[in-house]
Amino acid sequence: MNDLEIRRLTYADLPNVIAIERRAFPTPWSLAMFVLELSKPSGICLAALHDDRLVGYVVCSRYDTVWHVMNVAVDDRLLRRGIATALLSHLFGLADGPSVQYTLEVRTSNDAAIRLYEGFGFRAAGRRRAYYHDNREDALIMWRTAPERATA
Known about the structure:
This protein is α+β, with helices and mostly antiparallel strands. It has 4 helices and 7 strands; from the N terminus they run βααβββαβαββ.
């Protein structure tokens, strides 16, 4: 999507985040969960804006050298337009470094998200059985190691 701005997510964005979250997921995060993640100094929470309107977000928390991609969502009216790709590219641009690793869980039925993550180098590394409370669906556990940067 052209003219997409990626910036840090703020508390003022949360009403729009909650609106997208409720449409995107059968068991959406609560406002308190987003507030908690935004309050962590080690995390990276990004917003994607198009025409000054929030159209997607990513929430990522760091635990030692491992980043956990906790939540990625895009306005359901704007799917498949490169918004999640732009968010993840920006995230990795900020967080990648030597030996940095990322992990995430994704529904086993979410083929589009799995393909997106695989495109960034994530690989399946196991399952969490009955991880999702709404329908007891398994989660695919995926891992990515940041590529080594070329030295000149």
